[in-house]
Amino acid sequence: QVQLAESGGGLVQTGGSLRLTCEASGRTFSNYAMGWFRQAPGKEREFVAWINWSGGSTYYEDSVKGRFTISRDNAKNTMYLQMNSLKPEDTAVYYCARNRVAWATRPGTRYEYDYWGQGTQVTVSS
Q1: 29-74, pLDDT tens digit by residue?
Q2: Does residue 110 sit in helix, strand or coil?
């Protein structure tokens, strides 16, 4: 059984920064790509960023390119999302999730993720 736990959310002003952390249990973390998603009130959960098993390949949703950076430390079973130049439209609950396919080479849809964390709230004030 895999458990994911996000932390690092909070309230920040426009232009500020936050670093989200996703800690994973289990011994196979390094075999799987991981993703960050977010869900704002009244909206569907949307893709934010993806990183492959080694950290050597990443993808970003267009609106966060150049502002967000995804990374991982397989020795610590941990993934990160550094968020800079935050905007009010980034306000959402942020979730980390594990790609269901080991060594996946692309992000896929949210239905291709089998384990999810409980989420962490990010609020950006204007």
Answers
A1: 999 999 999 999 999 999 999 999 999 999 999 999 999 999 999 9
A2: helix
Signed CA dihedral, 5, 92, 11, 48: sign only:
positive
Handedness of CA 45, 48, 103, 78 (dihedral sign): negative
Of 83, 77, 106, whose CA–CA distance to 20 is shortest?
A: 83
In sequence order, the 6+-apart residues with CB closer than 8 A to the CB of 70 are: 36, 49, 50, 51, 58, 60, 79, 80, 81, 82
What is the predicted pLDDT for the residue at 45? 96
pLDDT in tens, 100-119: 988 899 999 999 999 999 99
Distance CA 88, CA 13 (A): 8
Nearest alpha carbon to residue 116 among 69, 79, 73: 79
